[in-house]
Amino acid sequence: MGGFFGTVSKTSCVTDLFYGTDYNSHLGTKRGGLATYSQEKGFIRSIHNLESTYFRSKFEGELDKFKGNAGIGIISDTDAQPIVINSHLGRFAIVTVAKITNIQELEEELLSKNMHFAELSSSNTNQTELIALLIIQGRTFTEGIENVFKHIKGSCSMLLLTEDGSIIAARDHWGRTPIVIGKKEGAYAATSESTSFPNLDYEIDRYLGPGEIVRMHADHIEQLRKPNEEMQICSFLWVYYGFPTSCYEGKNVEEVRFTSGLKMGQKDESEVDCACGIPDSGVGMALGYAEGKGVPYHRAIAKYTPTWPRSFTPSNQELRSLVAKMKLIPNRAMLEGKRLLFCDDSIVRGTQLRDNVKILFEYGAKEVHMRIACPPLIYACPFVGFSASKNALELITRRIIKELEGDENKNLDKYATTGSPEYEKMVNVIAERFGLTSLKFNTLETLIEAIGLPKCKVCTHCFDGSSHF
């Protein structure tokens, strides 16, 4: 997916930029980049590969070279960013959190207009450069960003650092990915994650609306485009992506996870000895489930945090699965002879679930129940860069549907309907395949209730196929 941070200050922005960007590290693991601007030095940019190390270790030693009161940074799971463009709009640096599904079509269209691409990522077009080329077709930055909204399919939120020392922040047209504005004395900031703010003394000022464009200065913000009425913010921000202390649309991630688990626990009739969370994103739900169910919370699995980053770091699926297994360590003393109920954010491929359940029984668990924070993932996401999935058959649900129906695309609406015979059969097959005592998924209604936004404002496409371009 990816996350960005940008700040404009009356004093040097470098420290805030460094730490603010680093607080987006849970959103991406491929590349990191920073860019600052000062009248004396102009644009200063640096990009590093993060696939085998962390953002801080790559950038800490070169912070002294960055100068200026305005800067943008990115943790990206896609292209090398930021890129710096010289155009009729002036020079600017740009970072994007984007997924463009019609990139080949747009590339051909731009090439036919005698445009060229200089930034290649793994021999493919850098989508951030493509977005920049769409922007410079406008007579103003606002018109250019609206041109992006008009042409892309997928999603795109962006920050532009301009040579007047301001930052333009533009949220995705449908609001699928967030931008949060923070404020403190003498500075404004924009970020994907409000977690960036507390330790840097920023307070949340506002949440940009869908398609809203603003220009940030050190002492004020000007609105360049009003937000759209319709919104489709990604529900998976609360289920998986978001850091527990972050808020989107005023809704805190940990609170949503806790509430979701609480509601499941209050309704669940299973007899268990304790509730446990699969680190990290399953913990908040498990704490809520334990309270709702009236059972203790036990930490039967712990995450070895000193060296293991997130499980989708390696590009190779086999290695990614190994990382997912190695970083989670079961605690025999806390699980032996017990009826355990585990909470997790989701089941995508099922790789991690299979390994976890096997070792839990080997370590003496009497029963292993699993509760999932969201409904089954039936549809691949065409809107944001969710995990490393390239097609629907990487989803365990679609593989099982193919086994049951002979066609992975048959009766998807029935399999997505909680309580239908097809749904119950699919869930039972997953439970049996992984040796679970029981398996239950959260309902879409409970998830939306926990998020606290109208269903029409939230994208739930991966669960029910309901969203649209």
UniProtKB/TrEMBL annotation:
PROSITE patterns: GATASE_TYPE_2
Cofactor(s) required for function per UniProt: Mg(2+); [4Fe-4S] cluster
Keyword Magnesium: yes
Example GO BP: purine nucleobase biosynthetic process
Catalytic activity of the protein: 5-phospho-beta-D-ribosylamine + L-glutamate + diphosphate = 5-phospho-alpha-D-ribose 1-diphosphate + L-glutamine + H2O
Name this polypeptide is given: Amidophosphoribosyltransferase
Keywords: Glutamine amidotransferase, Glycosyltransferase, Iron, Iron-sulfur, Magnesium, Metal-binding, Purine biosynthesis, Transferase
EC number per UniProt: 2.4.2.14
Pathway in which this enzyme or protein is active: Purine metabolism; IMP biosynthesis via de novo pathway; N(1)-(5-phospho-D-ribosyl)glycinamide from 5-phospho-alpha-D-ribose 1-diphosphate: step 1/2
Cofactor binding comment, as recorded: Binds 1 Mg(2+) ion per subunit.
Molecular-function annotations in GO: amidophosphoribosyltransferase activity; iron-sulfur cluster binding; metal ion binding
Entry binding sites for [4Fe-4S] cluster: C234, C381, C459, C462
Domain Glutamine amidotransferase type-2: 1-219
Family under the similarity heading: In the C-terminal section; belongs to the purine/pyrimidine phosphoribosyltransferase family.
One family name in Pfam for this protein: GATase_7
Gene3D superfamilies: 3.40.50.2020, Glutamine Phosphoribosylpyrophosphate, subunit 1, domain 1 (3.60.20.10)
Residue positions binding Mg(2+): S281, D344, D345
